[in-house]
Design goal:
about 550 residues, alpha+beta, Muramoyl-pentapeptide Carboxypeptidase, domain 1, L,D-transpeptidase catalytic domain-like, 3 domains, 8-stranded mixed β-barrel, 4-stranded antiparallel sheet, 17 helices, 21 strands, globular
Length: about 550
């Protein structure tokens, strides 16, 4: 009999929580209790492959100890010291070993395919679909086809970005093994042309991270802020989302002094986010990385369009989800969301009722289509607040419309969309988290032009004519395009450069805490898995 001990809501085998106990008995019943990792001679080669995969799971930013590795190794040592044939060893001992291996496979497969932590349990504004797989189907496949390495490889994300970030993790760990990088002491801002003893550490710091070549340096200028050092510092600033001014101010110093261990953890956190991503992003899609304030249109693996965006401020964060964009609205009306109406606009109207007229905003008493229009000058605005505001505010198309000339619609329950804006100044800033949750795009006309480029009914000239009429018009796309809003604070860009960004929404902090929790997250239920999902299970 297998020595299973009930503890709390789970079962313990050899001191290890068995997370897949709900499904493992059914699996072995179907096999008439025939093992898959063992035979009459002991461990099958596939078991060795599984142990090797567990040992190498740290390459994916996972923790090998989560997959019973210590207990498996201890049992191996124990059985090997007995110096008797496997057939003569304790059957219960082999059964425990078999159970640990099966549970380890289920856990590792689940974490590679869907992540160690479920994003929906951490964030109410994170809703990415298509990240679940039928792990039991993968186990059946391994049992019948004996192709563990191939199954494991297919369960992990297939995106090039995931593979590139894994390589970056390995590189950063090699830097850690070599002692990391030095700290740069605080002090006055360092600028090109300065001579300062802190410049020695700055030079070593940038060389350690690859932002400067590791060539021999003239000892006469080692503490001098020369053009080569300025170039390396600007490269560092650019890949950390800082203003590339070539000066070591407070913000740049803070990023320089983030330890290599912290950067390694940041990469591990973002590898987890890749495991939450849809397996198939599409042949043609729009991606917005809110942590980078950027938008890219991808077409057949190539960047077709790139632009800056303004995203939600921390109090009104832009959510994470995927959805197909089906139409755009030219010269849109803007129905002001209730929260914005009572928190942002109402205080301005209390001070000056003519604010609404200047902004082209009409007032309706109620949210019904036939709600009567109201004269804002005859409303005592001071009598209303967030709990008794009965008015609907609608802004006409025009130069002051907050949505600009275009908005791009993709169904979602967050009521978030992409849109133009008449306020251009914010695009010149490095950190652009100023919106109420929707995403303002830098070049809405360029995006609109791309989206209708294959539609014979819409030429660039016709699109510009419709925009110029200043009347609302809906343009539905012949082929919807997927939109993926995500949040990555570490990634490798198209040039192979490792990028880091500030955790503006404190999501890294929250995920870091969750990943440190023990025991590891339970395996998703078979009922919740989607065998027809685009995620491959074999």
């Amino acid at each position: 009999m297998i020595a299973l001990q009930e503890e709390g809501t789970g079962f313990i085998c050899r001191g290890e929580l068995i997370c897949g106990l709900k499904w493992v008995p059914l699996f072995y019943e179907e096999r008439l209790f025939a093992p898959i990792w063992l035979d009459g001679h002991g461990m099958r080669p596939m078991a060795q492959s599984l142990i090797r995969a567990i040992e190498q799971s740290d390459h994916d930013g996972l923790q090998p100890g989560d997959y019973h590795l210590s207990a498996i190794r201890a049992m191996l040592d124990e059985m090997q010291t007995q110096k008797v044939a496997p057939s003569e060893q304790d059957a219960a001992q082999w059964a425990e070993f078999e159970l640990l291996l099966t549970d380890a496979f289920l856990l590792l497969s689940s974490h590679l395919a869907s992540g160690r932590v479920s994003p929906e349990t951490l964030h109410t504004d994170w809703l990415l679909s298509d990240h679940s797989v039928d792990i039991m189907a993968a186990l059946h496949h391994v049992a019948t086809e004996d192709q563990l390495d191939r199954v494991i490889d297919k369960l992990a994300p297939v995106h090039l970005g995931y593979a590139a970030l894994k390589a970056a993790l390995w590189h950063m760990r090699s830097i850690e093994q070599q002692g990391g990088w030095p700290l740069v002491e605080a002090g006055a801002t360092l600028r090109p042309g300065d001579r300062d003893t802190r410049i020695v550490a700055l030079r070593d710091r940038l060389r350690s991270s690859g932002d400067m070549p590791a060539a021999e340096q003239d000892p006469e200028i080692v503490d001098f802020f020369d053009p080569l050092l300025e170039e390396g510092l600007k490269r560092f600033q650019e890949r950390h989302g800082l203003e590339p001014d070539g000066h070591v101010g407070a913000k740049t110093l803070a990023e320089l002094n983030v330890s290599v261990q912290e950067r390694i953890r940041q990469i591990e956190i973002n590898l987890e986010r890749w495991r939450w991503m849809p397996h198939d992003l599409g042949e043609r899609y729009i991606e917005v990385n809110t942590a980078d304030f950027s938008l890219r249109v991808m077409d057949a693996g190539q960047t077709a369009l790139r632009m800056r965006v303004v995203v939600g401020r921390p109090a009104r964060r832009t959510p994470v989800f995927s959805s197909p964009m089906t139409y755009m609205v030219v010269n849109p009306y803007w129905t002001v969301p209730y929260k914005i109406a009572v928190e942002d606009i109402l205080p301005k109207v209390v001070e000056d009722a003519s604010y609404l007229e200047r902004q082209g905003i009409k007032v309706y008493h109620g949210w019904d289509e036939d709600a009567p229009a109201m004269d804002p000058h005859y409303i005592d605005w001071q009598n209303y607040g967030k709990f008794n505001f009965p008015f609907r505010l609608v802004q006409d198309p025009g130069p002051t419309n907050s949505l600009g000339r275009l908005k791009f619609m993709f169904p979602n329950h967050f009521a978030v969309y992409l849109h133009d804006t008449p306020n251009r100044a914010l695009f010149g800033r490095v950190q652009r988290d100023f919106s109420s949750g929707c995403i303002r795009v830098e070049d809405a006309v360029a995006l609109a032009t791309y989206l209708v480029k294959d539609d014979s009914e819409w030429s660039v000239e016709r699109l510009n004519n419709v925009i110029g009429r200043k009347r609302q018009q809906i343009i539905r796309f012949q082929q919807p395009i997927s939109v993926h809003l995500f949040y990555m604070t570490a990634w490798v860009d198209e040039s192979g450069t490792l990028q880091f960004r500030k955790d503006i929404y404190k999501r890294d902090t929250k995920l870091d805490r969750a990943l440190k929790l023990r025991p590891p997250s339970a395996i998703p239920s078979v009922e919740a898995a989607t065998p027809t999902s685009k995620r491959r299970s074999s």
